[in-house]
Design a protein that fits this description.
The structure is a homodimer. The first copy, chain A, has helices spanning about 5-15, 25-30, 35-45, 60, 80-90, 115-125, and strands at about 50-55, 65-75, 95-100, 105-115, 135-145. In chain A, helix 2 crosses helix 3 (about 35-45). Chain A has about 150 residues and is of the alpha+beta class. The radius of gyration of chain A is 20 Å and the shape is elongated. In chain A, about 40% of the residues lie in helices and about 30% in strands. The mean pLDDT of chain A is about 95. Chain A has a four-stranded antiparallel beta sheet with strand order 3-4-2-5. Chain A has two domains: about 5-45, Winged helix-like DNA-binding domain superfamily/Winged helix DNA-binding domain (Arc Repressor Mutant, subunit A), CATH 1.10.10.10; about 60-140, 2-Layer Sandwich (Alpha-Beta Plaits). Chains A and B meet through helix 1, strand 1, helix 5, strand 3 and strand 5 of A and helix 1, strand 1, helix 5, strand 3 and strand 5 of B. Strand 3 (about 95-100) of chain A pairs antiparallel with strand 5 (about 135-145) of chain B, so a sheet runs across the interface.
Chain lengths: ~150, ~150
DNA sequence: GGTGAAACGTAGGCCGT
DNA sequence: ACGGCCTACGTTTCACC
């Protein structure tokens, strides 16, 4: 990853909020010619500073009417146990994020489902069935006053 | 928001994983002509199904070397107390997400900082200073085996 | 880093279904 | 209403300075 100067920082900030801006408009915003801007963007992509470009979809477009964070405790803390659990959630489309955290439990999941009934089904039939899982604590999201993903 | 048919669903899936694909290439992928595809994308933007397009930056490009979830309990559950807290975190760039959750505490934050020292400073000098805050519990993220944002 | 020009993509009018 | 065709216009991209 090459060094990131102030102009790169401005490019990243603009692309973070509008990934589909034209290269010409981006060039105008950062004060460079289009070709120099394009070369910088390509370098940032190659270096991995820009990992990709994504459309942000509304919850309705994703089919999500219910979101929860779930704290998951495991039976054993072995590598095999963790890997088994991670494989289990990797295949579940409802699990949007799986974080390995410090504290009294091992994992924090973000789960999205169509509605409460769909979540209940996922909770008991998918998560509850994984042999590594010892405890599940659900925190229903009532709102997100701040969310950088949106 | 108009109704979303199978072709719209395919368009959304493609744009979700590559927001900068050209309209022509997108048309090829969904099996429509470029003009019909463009009209659908514009309709999806207007209807709010597509909320925007964002570049995904690496943690290094964001200056993040330390991530934690923080469970925050408030002193009072009044509307004014919640709004005061939400205003407090809205201005903190380290707080990337703030979710209002059910359970024993009121909020779950995702916090990103340069390193542990920067986090400690944020924890005691920013969060700890908000008058509405009663309790703070930090869960350090050691890894994210699954993260749809990446 | 900037310039210029060829290649490429966009976007909207128009017509058929 | 919705898709395909056409085309003027704008943008990207690259060799060269």
């Amino acid at each position: 990853m090459d060094h990131i100067d102030p102009i790169d920082t401005r490019i990243l900030r603009v692309l973070q909020s509008d990934a589909r801006i034209s290269n010409q408009a981006l060039a105008g915003r950062v004060g460079l010619s289009p070709s120099a801007t394009l070369r910088r963007v390509q370098a940032l992509e190659r270096s991995g500073a820009i990992q990709g470009y994504r459309a942000v979809l509304s919850p309705a477009a994703r089919g999500t009417g219910f979101t929860a964070y779930v704290a998951v405790g495991l039976n054993d803390h072995t590598k095999a146990g963790q890997e088994g659990f991670e494989r289990g959630v990797a295949g579940a489309p409802q699990v949007r994020e799986c974080h390995n955290i410090t504290g009294t439990v091992e994992y924090l999941l973000r789960v999205e489902a169509a509605d409460l009934a769909a979540y209940k089904h996922f909770h008991t039939e998918v998560l509850g069935v994984l042999p590594q899982v010892r405890s599940l604590q659900t925190y229903v999201v009532m709102g997100s006053p701040k969310d950088d993903r949106a």
